[in-house]
Design goal:
2 helices; 2 domains; alpha+beta; eight-stranded mixed sheet; 236 residues; Immunoglobulin-like; two-stranded antiparallel sheet
């Protein structure tokens, strides 16, 4: 390498050392520059991570008002309605034991009589069940028109049994009779196919006959009084 003029000839070796030193210095400077460029990026990354961490802290779920499973079960058990006990049936009084229920009986009008003021229905009750039962005393008589409306009612007190009344046992198919007396009808003529119903004492039910032709209508003998109906005690 030729040196510029002015350098002494013995300086060629020293110049080469200077050039090497300059190259080393440039390399160091380049590394420093590269290192300086990386440092801010790393700092920015750490800062961003820190900011994200601060901006999104781990959220602690707020307490809820939902009761625990055991508490819910307890509340549900408390809210459940208590089942009502099945009521025990009221025992029948001694005089009612063994009496025929209406569901065991059929009723038929066997004869209508009229023309003398009152109307009389001869009726027969038959045991249509497969078990024997007893008839005793009297039942509550009703006269019913063709639409099912009650025209005359003897009242609940008419269905009665006393200890002195004889007991009549009806075997399956057995029958017993009574007569129904209906009087003082002062209204317009009722719908025909008139029938008779009987109500058993002690709440043992009601049973109704089928019609037998046209029932005779009683005479009005006192418009100030209501119509009346009654029946005799049951007899074989």
């Amino acid at each position: 390498m030729d040196l510029p003029s002015g350098f002494p000839p013995g300086s060629r070796r020293g110049s080469a050392g200077l050039i090497g030193a300059a190259v080393v210095a440039l390399l160091i400077a380049g590394c420093s520059a590269a290192s300086g460029t990386a440092t801010p990026a790393a700092s920015e990354t750490v800062a961003a991570a820190t900011a994200t961490s601060m901006a999104s802290p781990t959220a602690t779920p707020p307490p809820t008002d939902t009761p625990s499973l055991s508490a819910s079960a307890s509340v549900a058990a408390t809210a459940m309605p208590t089942a009502k006990p099945t009521p025990k049936p009221t025992p029948l009084p001694p005089l009612a034991v063994g009496l025929c229920r209406a569901s065991q009986l059929s009723l038929a009008i066997t004869l209508w009589e009229g023309g003398s003021g009152d109307s009389y229905a001869h009726v027969t009750a038959t045991n249509r069940s497969s078990s024997s039962c007893n008839m005793r005393g009297s039942s509550e008589a009703q006269v019913v028109d063709g639409h099912g409306h009650v025209l005359a009612d003897a009242g609940h007190a008419a269905a009665k049994v006393s200890s002195s009344d004889p007991v009549y046992t009806l075997i399956p198919g057995g029958a017993i009779n009574t007569i129904v007396d209906w009087g003082n009808w002062c209204k317009s003529s009722p719908t025909q196919k008139i029938v008779v119903a009987m109500v058993q004492p002690f709440g043992l039910g009601r049973f109704v006959s089928k019609p037998l032709g046209s029932g005779p209508i009683p005479t009005c003998y006192s418009s100030s009084m209501a119509t009346e109906v009654s029946s005799e005690a049951w007899l074989p």
